[in-house]
Amino acid sequence: xxxxxxxxxxxxxxxxxxxxxxxxxxxxxxxxxxxxxxxxxxxxxxxxxxxxxxxxxxxxxxxxxxxxxxxxxxxxxxxxxxxxxxxxxxxxxxxxxxxxxxxxxxxxxxxxxxxxxxxxxxxxxxxxxxxxxxxxxxxxxxxxxxxxxxxxxxxxxxxxxxxxxxx
Length: 167
Hints:
Elements: E1 2-3, E2 9-10, E3 24-27, H1 36-47, E4 51-52, H2 58-68, E5 72-75, H3 87-100, E6 104-106, E7 126-129, H4 131-142, H5 155-166
Parallel strand pairs: 3-4, 3-5
Antiparallel strand pairs: 1-2, 5-7, 6-7
């Protein structure tokens, strides 16, 4: 959309659809050092020639997905760097738009739009964008002990281990 000469919005693209696969990714690199699965995914995307676009601002990075009509965005909670995305104010509205454009949004376990909202300060993991990439990343983060995260197992297991070590 753009603003026309009479200061009214003009629809420049009436139907935005996200491709099922992407060549653009946006992974919050803060979680890479303590999440071997995320490091493997990051490395695979770089080696496959994907374009990295991470600004630190979910709205800007997700807007880029709509402009390019493909992409994947990943913001994961770690002990050192807790998720800062609000379920109610950020993730749900963005997930609604992404899913309407044919994409997918998850916290690595549940669909974002299916998560029960328990309060306005509730924070969540956010994996969003082209369906096949979202599925791939979620599968890698949650597969068994033989997966990319080595001996630590699933992403949820990794968080439990980190919490135990921090205590």
